[in-house]
Amino acid sequence: MKFCAECGGPIVREIPANDTRLRFVCSVCRTIHYENPRVVAGCVPEWQGKILLCRRAIEPRLGRWTFPAGFMEMGETTVEAAVRETLEEANARVGEPELYTVMSLPHMDQVHMMYRAPLLDLDFSPGSESTEVELFDPDSVPWQELAFPTIHHTLAFYVEDLALGKFRVRTGDVIRDAAGFRFRIGKQYK
User: Fold this and answer.
1) For domain 1-35, which architecture applies?
2) What is the pLDDT of residues 136-176, one digit of tens each?
3) What is the CATH code for 38-189?
4) pLDDT beneath 50: ranges in the chain
5) Looking at the chain, which runs of residues are DSSP E strands?
6) pTM of the prediction?
7) Under 8 Å CB-to-CB from 17, ≥6 apart: which residues?
8) Which residue among 12, 54, 84, 106 sits deepest, i.e. has the most Cβ atoms within 10 Å of its Cβ?
9) Do the bridges between strand 98-105 and strand 130-136 make them parallel or antiparallel, or are there none, so unpaired?
10) Alpha carbons 174 and 4: distance in angstroms, whole number
């Protein structure tokens, strides 16, 4: 950011009074321009113990498998974003979504929220951001071809919960370090 959205004045980075972080501050009108994480919302579409995945037709991770997910738009809820992304990427309609995972990705300034939702029917097909969509049994998931760590962790939790017959909301952080991407709850890593 170089110029103030309020007055057009030049922006400087400084720690404002009563704050603890560097912020973009207008040197003329003193407006503070906050930077906040972006929210990704997605859906784990379910059908009789199977999960619908989409093969990405776009970068990043072109050709890899993922749940339908993407950045929230202004004016929509996370649930609305998850349902919209499912329709856009898989032409799939889902029933009432339930929150399943919330993962902070501090290295990317993002928060990913995934919902579980039943497919309403088997009328699905690739959307503009997918080359194919397919239902997978837990044993046939293409683990080595998953697009993102949050998808991998969410899917691993799903398979674990499906086997137990009980689903629970998972929250935590995806930490990137020398060992790769790990899911952390408190100080525990998985």
Assistant:
1) Single Sheet (2.20)
2) 999 999 999 999 999 999 999 999 999 999 999 999 988 88
3) 3.90.79.10
4) 187, 189
5) 11-14, 23-26, 32-33, 38-47, 50-56, 65-66, 69-71, 98-105, 110-118, 130-136, 170-177, 180-185, 188-189
6) 0.87
7) none
8) 54
9) unpaired
10) 33
